[in-house]
Queue: 2 jobs
Job 1
Amino acid sequence: MILGQGVVGPRRVNERRVWVNGQPVDERAPALSALDRGFTLGDGVFETMRARDGRVFAFERHLARLRRGAGVLALPLPPVGELERLVCGALADVQPDTWVTLRLSISRGFPRQRGLLPDPDAIPTVVLHRAPLVPYPADLYDRGVTAIVSAVRRNEHSPLATIKSLCYLENVLARQAAAARGAGEALLCNTAGELACASAMNLFAVFGAALVTPPLSSGALPGTVRALILEKLAPVAGLEPVERPLVPEDLARCDEAFLTNALAGVLPLVQVDGHPVGDGAPGRWSRRLYQILADVWKSE
Amino acid sequence: MILGQGVVGPRRVNERRVWVNGQPVDERAPALSALDRGFTLGDGVFETMRARDGRVFAFERHLARLRRGAGVLALPLPPVGELERLVCGALADVQPDTWVTLRLSISRGFPRQRGLLPDPDAIPTVVLHRAPLVPYPADLYDRGVTAIVSAVRRNEHSPLATIKSLCYLENVLARQAAAARGAGEALLCNTAGELACASAMNLFAVFGAALVTPPLSSGALPGTVRALILEKLAPVAGLEPVERPLVPEDLARCDEAFLTNALAGVLPLVQVDGHPVGDGAPGRWSRRLYQILADVWKSE
């Protein structure tokens, strides 16, 4: 067992791995043209997914969002069968019963000419990045996460607001500001002052039996877990899902609030800008919904 | 002379060339990590410049904007001396008296860990792309350019509005929509309905002796030619430079309007959404300012 560890030996499964257009590459190795429009213009879309035992959880939802995003950009996607084949190949050597993350990024690729207008026959660049799914610390679910309301306003009028494009810098800035103020996440308001979502998560607040989340018209990213909760998990838990605008002041008035995404699941939100959310402790509904979600993850 | 043409022979000068971190690379060759944050998140800044005889025009203005942008991102830039050395090297084999474009892109580089938060000690990726400066067709200056008012609203509240970040997809979408409607450019309004700028150009409108351009608070990109016109060229031409908000309706009321950037210089804007700007023909002030600018280009 000790012989060869870190020196020679079989390839460790579950390590970080990267494929570009289906070819495995070292994650640090040169792999993309320096003129790829994904790099020069943020011209592309991506999905971050969780997968286990050769299957991506909610793959259809991710593919549907990817297609919508590519449609907004008029970006020709590879055929779905090809994407499925890439993803299957990327999961082949993962240990059984082990979650990994998969990030699928598709850019408009190498441009024949400079400038903003894309070639109509551009050949997309497809990057697939697999990494171990490092669970969030268990005590984060017990303690809950703190957030700031970011000064970055999300433009709910932008065609990019409801797709996952490679232009993610506003979210980076919001997260940086949160970290600088000792908070774990950043909530982004839209230009009208309504809450939209967090830097990489969706926002929910519970008022009695109502589970409220900002509508897409507020600039909320159409998260896959958000959709799953609205369509299936909230009714199972006995909550009435409601899409309506929220403002920061609502977080002082709600019973509890939580954040969701495909990797973390459901994280209780306990404090915003130093003020308690609800009673300032993780609530029972966030725990309940996370349990239901974890069961769905296991059963699919 | 004929021997070897296109087969062997000396390296053609003035062709497209690319350097990554100072190393020459083939423009199509793999050169960037597939995980570079410039590609995955649009996490970086860029400048597009014109250069001739080993010198970049208005290099100080470009460097200052790059520094401001990097400051907004808390992105550590290489020392200015190093950037100057890279640029000088990239211009060394350009034929005398020949304009080229240089695009300098600096991303946050390869991340040690996934997620939005950057490594504090990230090593930036520096891409320099040189290409022949293909002049805009002369008759475009004689006929003028047409534009649409894009449905894409520029978020004047975003910290990205006044820097040139790698997140340029909204501009791409605006240009695509313009091309689909047979127009040469797209004007972007901000969320308040004020004109901000075009997809890759600044906007000016002449009213009598006043030369009006949207202020940065309207979401205008702080263009280098825009600044040069406001500070120096307008007074030389006998126009009074004014930064104040413009709305699309102003373009029907002005005497003339034009668009500016570092590559095109000054392009008359003659039609917006099918309606004439001024009398619908290129105006005398755009021609005059372009002459003055071309003289400055030549003399510097």
Job 2
Amino acid sequence: MKIFDRRFFIKSAAAISTTHIATTLADTFTQISPSTLFDHKSVMHLIAPKMATVRIGFIGLGERGLSHVKHCSHIDGIEIKALCDIDQNAMNQASQYLEQQKITLPDEYSGSKLAYKDMLTRNDIDIVIISTPTEWHTPMAVDTMNSNKHAFVEVPAATSVDECWLLVDTSERTQKNCMMMESACYGQKELMVLQMVKQGLFGELKHGESTSLIELHGQQKQEANNNDSSHKKIPAHLYPTHGLGPISQYMNINRGDQFDFLTADQSTTLKRTEATQNQSKPVARDFNTTVITTKLGRTINVKHEINSQSPYTHHTVIQGTNGTFSGPPNRITLEKLPVTVNRHYQNIHQLAVKKWQENGQKGQKPDMQNQQQWNDNMAYWQEHYQHPLWQSKGAEAFQNGETHGKDFLMMWRIIYCLRNGQALDQSVYDAAALSVISPLMTDLVTENSNRKDIPDFTRGLWKNTAPISNAS
Amino acid sequence: MKIFDRRFFIKSAAAISTTHIATTLADTFTQISPSTLFDHKSVMHLIAPKMATVRIGFIGLGERGLSHVKHCSHIDGIEIKALCDIDQNAMNQASQYLEQQKITLPDEYSGSKLAYKDMLTRNDIDIVIISTPTEWHTPMAVDTMNSNKHAFVEVPAATSVDECWLLVDTSERTQKNCMMMESACYGQKELMVLQMVKQGLFGELKHGESTSLIELHGQQKQEANNNDSSHKKIPAHLYPTHGLGPISQYMNINRGDQFDFLTADQSTTLKRTEATQNQSKPVARDFNTTVITTKLGRTINVKHEINSQSPYTHHTVIQGTNGTFSGPPNRITLEKLPVTVNRHYQNIHQLAVKKWQENGQKGQKPDMQNQQQWNDNMAYWQEHYQHPLWQSKGAEAFQNGETHGKDFLMMWRIIYCLRNGQALDQSVYDAAALSVISPLMTDLVTENSNRKDIPDFTRGLWKNTAPISNAS
């Protein structure tokens, strides 16, 4: 980065952080009075007062919202107080599920897009789980915090730099949590790799990659049938948070390191399949390649193919000074092996030597030095590095959870932290840092440019914040 | 690209192309008199007069040079006229090999770094194969062409933008070939994929990737022991040509499409292993991520980890509107399947249905629609899409060749083209386009910048040049 650029950026970032409160957003939600004077009290590691029972309101009961309702209904120490959706059918589906589970039926809010505001006037709700169309995420989260409740919001939490700052400012002003529910951070494989990262198995991290090849057919149908499809409006990666969530935990983003700037390149849009090529003209280009560089000089290569002919593929790489995880297909290589793994290799080596001896010592003697190779035995790694959360709640997650248990585990962990007076695994700074990437990509496309600085929503606090604990 | 940038670039590229001839290079090779007036007669698809016998001189008989000598000795229609190396031991090794093969011993040139110039005064040599340290590649190739011989040079052919232009200008002025010997273009898998690309199996190409994770130990030893190591001097990817060679053939670079610009990001340099961290301080950063965008709007993601803890890994991806190749681990997915492949899947489907029926129709009936998946059966793909060159010469290549036969096949193909009056598979424009990437990456590091335009060495001819034939 040139010094001039950095200075200019620091200046403009400062300008934004004092003025964005006044920014006019959709007038569908409560306007916040501009306040350039309020004290920015950090919400890093914010701990809400212990809750014996977590009282929940839901806004949005579509596919994701219903799934959250189901998961909550299997967790102890919660009460579902209210449901809100403009679609009465969706609401009925959630109610019927709760009825089957013999859970006291919550109050219902519907009838208009703003019915959620009535729900927010209640004083018997602690947290609100927001699973609505993307453009409603920030307005609803802001209203939630302003009504003295913690907000838990689907990905992405915001769709612009201004919205990200608004979430941060509101969380700091109200001292309420705003957690983006990126459940990829709670996947079994992702948490195993986090465990290995925390134990130093990969050494010092230098590079990560996240590739999303999004399945063609469903998305094209969605585009063809829905003129409001986000895929039509946003010419960038819609869900970089899925890959970036875990990688930013590995790299301690907001907690010792920070996103610095990104570069992006996009391939042109080529013809679509015959079935859809005349129906919709997508804004999104076919293949987006973004590289984020962190303040400590790590790089993260985020790749996204929106119009993919490949099966749905989500591929992650994390590389350190001692080794690499890459998958799927999942494989791990480590230069210096931990003692247990080394013993494992020694056993393999001894067996190979024995076989070589039995075969009359034909060919080269098996070499122990060749242990540095890709190991794709995930069962083995999982046996040794299963994350504590999966060790204790894995069976329950598989039994109750959809999406391979990670959504259940996320919800369980949220409720656990709130009931036990612990800080949540992810703060509003994570919501903002992860959500801002897609709008910055969009800016690059619009501006026909290739590089953009990334705001530091912690206002420098990342430097002195401890890494995420291994408990998450 | 901003219009201003492009205009500026075109102007400066033009300025370079008329003045670079006068550029002072190492004074170890013949200076070319500046000539701003000579006609730029293209060497695109240059065909040299048929040679009944190809008479060869070798400069450089180290690991690569000796390998080329061995391969040539197994090919009909050649005569090895001369060997040149400053290292008499290397020369002896080559001579001894030829003696074993009962081949007439060539003349030897040694004694000084410029002994090769004496060899070039001979009139009985048609082509010169240059396998010397990198910094000698351009000077020797230029001298070769100026002495009325065709130059075949190891990768990279040049180490700066000026050297690339010098190769192009010299080839055009002398109407002699200058082919960079990127043998990766002749690999079995690479040519199979080229065959599939040419047959349209992947549809229209949109994106490619090439990842090189270079093995740690050998390289660090090289750096520790050799102060002249290129790895010490060049802070970028030394060998992007290995991955870019095949991908640029897939994408018809110089023949219908052209490199436009590149962006690059590099991770910082982290600590090295204990064994070497005090011995050498590398210039190259740990992980370089470069994205090349082509004139037609395709992207190529070139990744390079120089200080890798992973086993040596060279990974390629090519993605089109109908599918993707990715590997290793090698796998292919295609949306619309060709008839033969479709029949293969139908057979699998029928077997699955039969099994399902035999098991009393338990569970879901196997679905033919789920055929879109990753297929890693490379034997199957190779059976159907083996490249003609591998079909006819594969057995011979495996028998005589090192590096999995690709170097032998490359050499066989070069000799074949020269003896049959065919254009070579790769021209000086390919040598320049592929070689210029590494110096441009270095410029970005030096300038602390992220974007750079890539010169068009064909001077616009790429637009009207036919794609490479499928024969290569």
